[in-house]
What we know:
Blueprint: H1 26-56, H2 61-89, H3 98-117, H4 121-149, H5 155-179, H6 183-204, H7 220-225, H8 235-255, H9 258-265, H10 270-302, H11 306-324, H12 329-355, H13 364-396, H14 400-418
Helix pairs in contact: 1-2, 1-4, 1-5, 1-6, 2-4, 2-13, 3-4, 3-6, 4-13, 5-10, 5-12, 8-12, 8-13, 8-14, 9-10, 10-12, 11-12, 11-14, 13-14
Amino acid sequence: xxxxxxxxxGRALSQDPGPATTPRGYGSGLTLAAFGVYFAxxxxxxxxxAFKIQHIDPEGAVGSLGLVLGVGAAFALVANPLAGRxxxxxxxxxxxxxxxxxxxSLVGTLAMAVIxxxxxxxxxxxxxxxxxxxxxxxxxxxxxxxxxxxxxxRRGRYSALIGIGTPLAILGASVLANLVAADLWRxxxxxxxxxxxSIVFAVVLDDVVRTVPPVEPFRVKEFFxxxxxxxxxxxDFGWTWLTKFFVxxxxxxxxxxxxxxxxxxxxxxxxxxTEVILAANMASTVAMLVSSPLGGWxxxxxxxxxxxxxxxxxxxVLGLLLLALAPSVAMVVVAQxxxxxxxxxxxxxxxxxxxxxLPNAEDAAKDLGVLNIANALPQSLAPAMAPSxxxxxxxxxxxxxxxxxxxxxxxxxxxxVLVYRIKGVR
Length: 426
């Protein structure tokens, strides 16, 4: 099956109708796998890494955290599309996706164990880069199964299952950080959960087995082609990438500094901060559990994606504004709930939209991996930009973290309205 070009407007949307039916057990397995891998990724990003770095390097924690998370996210954005391309080409007898799902989780968990025991920032950096690459390789294969197993008309509700896994993972990260003080278990336990969840999904997955090897060998051209596309030819795909990037900058990139926001601005101790983060993420999770399936179901029902993406992005902007101007810890919790409500709908509907603008059905995992760069890149750029923006905010008297969250709201707003540049999906 190949994509059908539409030269009149320069787009080339995939016309692959997908399978007629979705295998039994796929939905529950998808939810479990998404939860497991996101749990392993979000626990360090949202909570554990900030305190781990603070334990090792208390004086330079802000800069060291930015370095570790920024470089690690760069590895993620390379690994995701590369693993996607390799899984598209795989002729393994166990299926195209299974080896990457299980193998990536196993390697990532070993790296997490290293982070837990080391007392060196450089070693944390190396291990986190490996963990990001491994888990994002697994994630690329997990998300690609959505294209393999589900028809386009039902992808909104199945994308919502991935969206449900996200808030549950964030909540689990907060619960773990609140209950477990030891660095080793803050990193190793999420890794073990990811491994078990991935193995279960691999067992229940009715994976596609490619019986015909790719015509072309995997060369340097194909390697670099894993990370690029021609936005002039595939305009909708390009606008989808930009929409995801800007909104995810406001969501994932900004949240990294909430632990320091609570300790520096409100004077909370680490234990108090983890309690507030737990409450905030509980509010966010409840909101996402409502909005994710609701947004996915409504977008399928009405046959529209763009209005839901815009509305979700604007709700996230509102939450970021509340976070920036929060007069109290209670308002931080409320703000995270508002952000979560918008993020839940965005993550489900945007993922469904993405599967409808792929340039070529044969390269589904690779192209979805390119789109996932838009998830990972903000996590690389945001920590690199944060110290400067926080410093400027402090210098002009509005507050460093206030300036940071306001900047995130502006970027997310731009992404929310940019979705209407996509013409091939309503």
